[in-house]
Specification:
This protein has helices spanning 3-13, 18-27, 35-44, 48-55, 65-98, 108-116, 136-145, 160-165, 196-200, 219-232, 238-250, 256-265, 269-283, 289-296, 299-313, 326-335, 340-352, 356-361, 372-386; strands at residues 104-106, 127-130, 168-172, 179-183, 204-207, 214-217. It is α+β, with helices and mostly antiparallel strands and 395 residues long. The strands form two sheets. Strands 1-2-4-3 form a four-stranded mixed β-sheet, covered by helices on one side. A two-stranded antiparallel sheet has the order 5-6. Strand 3 (168-172) and strand 4 form a beta hairpin. Helix 1 (3-13) packs across helix 4, helix 11 (238-250) packs across helix 13 and helix 13 crosses helix 15. The protein starts with a helix and ends in a 9-residue tail after the last helix.
Length: 395
């Protein structure tokens, strides 16, 4: 993707109304715009709705007819899919509520409304629900009765070891094509985060995707979670920065004192600072002075932001995703920890915390969970003998 095409995607991601106009003036004299590369970049970065919104500011004569048609068709498909998922979200929440279960949706339709005031304002392909750990088995049973499928048997969802070593279980509906993720914690190992306290404090707001009244996390805890979620994936998609930028822009009266205190309490303050640097320096988001003072004192965060902005410009096959460039990913996760103490904790989790593959290999009761430390080398060797080319990330 050339510099100009990247600038066009940045303009689309920015919540500033001046950015599309500036790009339009450049477009008048730019002879080398590659529309195929631009659309390819929009696909990779999940930027279709925002690119459509940006290009709507330009005279239609400047956009090839084939490009206009593709943009319109893709946006229509996204709108239809988002509405279907919104309807499914409402149905599931009512189903859980009838059984006395509270679930808090994160991202998906509620984020679309909070950040863009439009359920079709961003792309999403699944529903993420935060539930209490003790409700997992009941929620899973309700989903299975509704036609969903998952890899784990229901009895495992009452297994204390299973609940300890992972935080999410995925479900898919073979007929409807819907995907649902049940979280009882939002993140583990790489960047642990637990917003249960914010949930207990009722840091929630009401949204209305598809005309339905649905509660979700308030912008402050949501911004903290979005920062960690993007960091877990090395910020490889520009639309995650757009979510942050538009969320801040739509909510000018954020409680920044609470947000910073929450990020420090969750030990993810540097991950949040990285999100804020990207939003400010690349997407023209205005931040309060007390936040800027915090950012300016952290050179590591600016170095990470420079690295992320470089990854944004790379083709998808060259970025450090889950299957490639593991050293780059490990280094990124190491550096994004808040302190040296947290870095040592991260390495300890990486080396010694059992994962789902360990649990699948042998299921130990939670009181014997420490035995996984001895079993991990054995399982590694067995897998190596079975398939020497197996992805080591799965070890």
């Amino acid at each position: 993707m050339s510099s100009f095409e990247f600038q066009l995607l940045l303009a689309a991601a920015s919540s500033s109304s001046d950015q599309p106009l500036a790009v339009w003036k450049s477009l008048e004299t730019e002879p080398r715009l590659d529309w195929n590369r631009l659309l390819g970049g929009a696909r990779r970065h999940g930027m279709w709705p925002l690119l459509v919104r940006c290009l709507s500011c330009f005279p239609s004569t400047q956009i090839p007819a084939a490009v206009r048609t593709e943009l319109q068709l893709q946006q229509q498909q996204i709108a239809v899919q988002n509405l279907h998922l919104t309807g499914e979200l409402w149905t599931l929440l009512q189903l859980f509520l009838a059984c006395g279960i509270e679930a808090v949706p994160v991202k998906g339709p509620t984020l679309s409304m909070l950040a863009f005031s439009d359920v079709a304002g961003r792309q999403f392909c699944d529903l993420d629900l935060l539930i209490a750990e003790q409700d997992l088995a009941r929620c899973a049973t309700l989903l299975l009765e509704r036609g969903y499928r998952t890899w784990a048997p229901v009895e495992s969802m009452r297994d204390s070891t299973f609940l300890r070593i992972t935080n999410v279980l995925e479900f898919s509906h073979p007929e409807k094509g819907h995907h649902v993720e049940l979280h009882w914690r939002l993140s583990v190992v790489l960047l642990p985060i637990d917003l249960s306290e914010a949930w207990r404090e009722r840091r929630l707001v009401e949204t209305s995707p598809g005309g339905k009244r649905i509660s979700t996390f308030a912008p402050e805890p949501l911004l903290v979670y979005l920062s960690v979620h993007a960091a877990k994936h090395c910020w490889l998609r520009l639309n995650w920065a757009a979510d942050i930028a538009w969320l801040i822009q739509r909510h000018p009266h954020l409680d920044w004192t609470y947000l910073m205190r929450l990020a420090r309490r969750e030990r993810c303050w540097r991950a949040v600072k990285l999100a804020l640097v990207l939003a400010r320096d690349w997407l023209d988001v205005a931040l309060p002075d007390e936040v800027i003072r915090e950012l300016n004192g952290d050179r590591t965060t600016f170095a990470l932001a420079k690295r992320v902005s470089y990854w944004w410009t790379l083709p998808a096959q060259k970025v450090p995703d889950e299957g490639k460039k593991r050293w780059e990913r490990t280094r990124f996760f190491f550096e994004i920890q808040d302190s040296w103490k947290e870095r040592y904790r991260y390495l300890a989790r990486l080396l010694f915390t059992p994962n789902l593959n360990d649990w699948r290999f042998v299921r130990l009761p939670v009181r014997w969970i420490g035995l996984y430390l001895a079993l991990r080398p054995l399982r590694f060797l067995l897998n190596l003998l079975r398939s020497p080319k197996e992805d080591l990330d799965r070890q």
